[in-house]
Amino acid sequence: MRIICWFYPFLGINFILNGIVRASGAMYPVLALNLTSFWILRFPLTYLCAALWGSHGIAIGMGISLVVSSLIASAYYRYGGWKRKKLFREEADTA
Description:
With about 100 residues, this protein is mostly helical. The chain has helices at about 10-25, 25-55, 55-80.
């Protein structure tokens, strides 16, 4: 807990940025970001760090994955196409 607690702000950044993007209607990019975060980053990094540093490596691997995941979410928030997504179609005036 003493190791992983320093990385929890990055989890909050992830939740906030993914929530903003998801609220715009861009569901699939957030799904892809979360799948990448868990299966490509968190599990392999945790396994690798646990092999290197034992039980402390679990927290270190999770922490590194949270930092990298929040960097990816920040990059998508900044440069992704979610801002151009239309939620509603504008109806033509019939009057």
